[in-house]
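Researcher: Quick one. two chains, 416 residues in total.
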Amino acid sequence: MMNLKEISDLKSNYLHEMFKIMNFSEKEWEVVNGLNLFRYFKKGSYLLRNGQFSETSYYVIKGCLVSYYKIDDEERITDFYAEKDLFTPSCITTKKPSTSYLVCLEDSLVSIGNPENEKIMLDNFPRFEQLCRISTEKSLLKQRIEFDQFKFASSEERYINFAKTRPSLLRRVPQYQIASYLGLTPQSLSRIRRRLLKVEVKSENIAV
Amino acid sequence: MMNLKEISDLKSNYLHEMFKIMNFSEKEWEVVNGLNLFRYFKKGSYLLRNGQFSETSYYVIKGCLVSYYKIDDEERITDFYAEKDLFTPSCITTKKPSTSYLVCLEDSLVSIGNPENEKIMLDNFPRFEQLCRISTEKSLLKQRIEFDQFKFASSEERYINFAKTRPSLLRRVPQYQIASYLGLTPQSLSRIRRRLLKVEVKSENIAV
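Model:
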């Protein structure tokens, strides 16, 4: 659990970062401060459910969210959102209710985006549009690279790649959820981990 | 091969569509007409190679492109771009040379985007920025859905899904390239196709 001091520090760091990127004027700064951007959610909170319509995006300042959908009552993990990751609901583009869930894996401090905030930002800073476009283009490319890597990787390579690119999640996320995210059964993920551990012990390069 | 009449009709249809979407004024229309947007490439032309730096995007008006990268001299197909698909090079975001190739599978008429065109468009129509953002958001979601479907699908489901969502490519693309795109060997794709054909013959629902 985060205490009030920590939350307050995280908020002001976030605004400070935003200030640097956007190069705000005094007036713009006031507008942003008035936006009521922050939300704090307890572990286990549902931010979105199958069948709900939502146009709220979540930028994770601290914490971890997981998105999944259900097939035959089984969770299929589509992604994890930790520090500096942005979740955008499909509803914004499809204009239909969500088919997936978004849940807090940890107590999480997030900054929210929604059509009202967006309108205020765009009316006050037209250059915000460009920032959004560039950030969306970056997300598109990142996802493209992940997809390509996933497609051509063996199960073992997928796990190694995940461990390399998102090492903090290895500690924070239950193993069965990592397995689902990687499109593996929990059993085959266990086998892969045992095999890798043996290799590491042999090479005296023991994982901590 | 397309003849001059066909190319000219395709161009004017494309501009007409763009005109409707953008709701151009007379002056804006002149700007767009002066942009020199169109290129015609013969089958087999390379539009991008590993190691090249390019910020040119290609919107396919007619034809088909394929993007791939090479691992141990083997082509790994990342995507196909047919009518109304847009290819954007990773260089734009990474500012590094491309790691993949882009080749024409058919004679292709495309409309190009590059930083110079983009600047002219943005200077003349600021609302173009928003159109770009919305279109990038749509691409992001489309890719997200494809990725999720791919991750949780069996080989057979992947093929069926491809055949459903991009039926015209089944006829236009060599089977070994479809196999690579689906992350399968050509042999397993053949097996899947034979199995599906049997099912279809049994149910008297014969594919054409």
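Strands of chain A lie at 38-41, 46-48, 57-62, 65-71, 74-81, 86-87, 101-104, 108-113.
Researcher: Thanks, that's what I needed.
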